[in-house]
Design goal:
By secondary structure, this protein is mostly helical. It contains 13 helices and 2 strands. α1 runs antiparallel to α4 and α4 packs across α8. The chain is globular.
Length: about 325
């Protein structure tokens, strides 16, 4: 599903999410089995000490400081699932925030990273803020080449959810404020945490094009924020939808043409001078077929406007 995203950074972000879940699920299953083994072993012993447990389960691993009594005998499975949810949430935000910073820096608009993390709102002076503002800023200098040739294909990505973008950002804010409370406020819900949660409560699963609304335990001011692993896993789909949707919007910016040219040169030239492909000079259909194949090898969708792409490639000396 990382194919047919425009920016290489977007594809990398998708791959990072996949790798993250590969690690989380295997580690989660391993912990479940470790808990079962430690409890079974403890039930056969008249006296259990940490050194006995470490000798049985930790020796040879090189790990120091493991407290299996607390982790496997005292903490409940639900408490550990909440811990997993916290680690997963931190990593998901690290991925999308790193992606936003990189793409917008490449587009020469790093200052817009914050705007694309908020739903559209109107300031007291009547100007837009949030997604609406950021989108308008990028659309002020569009790329006719990319808008006409690639945007339709990028919009057809199964995770593209432009019609739901404002609702997705409401969900994003809820989980982001919960994460902020855990990281910066000792896990205690602040006023903004509660506000974001209340806005999230108005959403339905269909608002996010999801099978179920990602679970977020009740958030009360002054209380500790609780996280649900099932809910954070569901929220990961919001992250993927935001990346796919914004990737298509960002691809319409004029500066995104540099990304297309860079991908072409990297794939077809590498460290050597660009290989100039010879296109059919007499058969337009054949030329379109050639261009479509070359573009798809980059991981991009089939162009919607072949003559425009051909003109660009010829002007840049990439084909002849």
């Amino acid at each position: 599903m990382a194919r047919y995203l425009f920016f290489r950074t977007s594809r990398s972000a998708y791959e990072q999410v996949t790798e993250l879940f590969d690690f989380v699920w295997s580690t989660n299953v391993s912990l479940w089995n470790l808990r079962w083994q430690v409890k079974g072993f403890a039930d056969t012993q008249s006296v259990i000490t940490e050194s006995v447990l470490n000798g049985r389960f930790v020796a040879g691993s090189g790990i120091r400081g493991a407290n299996l009594s607390r982790a496997c005998l005292e903490m409940t499975w639900e408490e550990q699932q909440s811990q997993f949810a916290k680690f997963l949430l931190f990593d998901l935000f690290a991925i999308i925030e790193g992606w936003l910073a990189k793409v917008l820096d490449d587009l020469g608009r790093p200052g817009l990273a914050k705007e694309f993390q908020f739903p559209t709102s109107t300031k007291a002076n009547g100007t837009l803020a949030g997604f609406g503002f950021g989108q308008a800023e990028l659309r002020a200098t569009p790329s006719p080449l990319l808008t006409r040739s690639f945007y339709p294909g990028l919009r057809s990505h199964p995770k593209n959810s432009l019609n739901e973008i404002e609702k997705l950002l409401i969900a994003y804010r809820c989980f982001k404020e919960c994460r902020n409370a855990v990281m910066h406020a000792g896990g205690i819900a602040q006023t903004r945490t509660v506000s974001a949660y209340q806005a999230y409560l108005a959403l339905t699963a269909s608002d996010l094009r999801a099978k179920e609304l990602p679970e977020c335990p009740p958030v009360l001011a002054g209380n500790r924020v609780q996280l649900s692993l099932r809910g954070v896993v569901g929220f990961s789909d919001v992250i993927l939808r935001l990346i796919a949707t914004l990737d298509a919007e960002f691809a319409c910016a004029l500066h995104a043409e540099k990304e297309f040219r860079s991908q072409w040169l990297t794939y077809y030239a590498g460290a050597r001078s660009a290989k100039r492909y010879v296109l059919s000079t007499t058969n337009a259909s054949r030329r379109d077929e050639q261009i479509g194949k070359l573009v798809r090898k980059l991981g991009l969708p089939t162009p919607s406007d072949f003559p425009l792409i051909e003109s660009y490639l010829r002007a840049e000396g990439l084909v002849h």
